[in-house]
Amino acid sequence: PASDPDLVERARHAKAALGDSVFVLGHHYQRDEVIQFADVTGDSFKLARQAAARPDAPYIVFCGVHFMAESADILTGDDQRVILPDLAAGCSMADMARIDQVEDAWDALTDAGVAEVTVPVTYMNSSADIKAFCGRNGGVVCTSSNAARALRWAYERHGSDTKVLFLPDQHLGRNTAVRDLGLALDDCVVYGPRRRSGGLSDDDLASARMVLWQGHCSVHGRFSAESVADVRERVPGVTVMVHPECTHEVVLAADRVGSTEAIITTVAEAPAGTAWAIGTELNLVQRLAAEHPDKGVMFLDRTVCFCSTMNRIDLPHLVWALESLVEGTVVNQIRVDDDTAHWARVALDRMLALPG
Length: 356
Ligand code: 13P
Ligand code: SF4
Description:
Blueprint: H1 5-18, E1 22-27, H2 32-35, E2 40-42, H3 44-50, E3 59-63, H4 66-75, E4 81-83, H5 99-111, E5 118-123, H6 128-136, E6 140-142, H7 147-158, E7 163-167, H8 170-180, E8 188-191, H9 193-197, H10 202-207, E9 210-213, H11 225-234, E10 239-242, H12 248-253, E11 256-257, H13 260-269, E12 275-279, H14 282-291, E13 296-299, H15 315-326, E14 333-334, H16 338-352
Parallel strand pairs: 1-2, 1-3, 3-4, 5-6, 5-7, 7-9, 8-9, 10-11, 10-12, 12-13
Antiparallel strand pairs: 4-14
Bound molecules: 1,3-dihydroxyacetonephosphate and iron/sulfur cluster (SF4).
């Protein structure tokens, strides 16, 4: 639906009044009505790098989800304040790994006699305390656009016997290990509180090269190998490109795999007349289709698939956050405590320093 013109005008007005004191970042999954006000748009890697691009802006309004705003707080100066327009914009995948559960898992790996060669690697989609856990334990953060480089770094830095504890997205971990690093599916085991009680033995853990946390994205989990077969039948010649949070089966069935930024670039560079079925969040796919009317860009599945928490950032919330700033009030500030921020930054800086 079209955005409320009154709210659009108010957002424009507030942003103009704030001038350079506000820097608005927008993730590709944000609604059109919100993304039009972003100074920078990107995938989570690009936004992590961009967060610190405007050190003179005292306010950073992050149109994305909670873990992204936390990372922006960690990566920016003490005098910059990060605002998430709706505090309910979380990420169900990030919520699947709590720090106490991860510490228990780490202890179990120690009990299995493998902790001295285990390194934690966490996907950006995790809480700041899990990133800090990785920082303290020789690990690194990764995003969907550099997961292969992060895993190579982990194995090279810690030696060929290294085991990686990959948090929290089992699919990104498995897809990257198998597609990019050439590990066998059997080299990966899934660890989670329920799975552990379901009989994952110390021997299983000890022989694995990748211990995958039992997390997933419910949005990307809705795509199936049948959706890929279905679109191939309906649209002969279509190229299927999916996000690496999709299941391994879907990734195997697809033609291309990439982060949101990679999907956008690939479609932009494709010749006119080509057809693309995209397996990622719907706001992004709809925008891509509108921006490239000369190409057939379609959603991979027949059902609607928004990320409900990304969608919580809507124009009324953005207007409220901006107008509050104009009035001198900071609402919904995201603040990570100093110790957590220090160690999370160690892991984030390792990611930002990855070669290539
Ligand atoms: P990107 O790293 O591609 O931005 O993906 C983030 C995300 O939340 C995907 O679900
Ligand atoms: Fe989290 Fe999935 Fe939404 Fe991305 S799409 S923010 S992983 S719930």
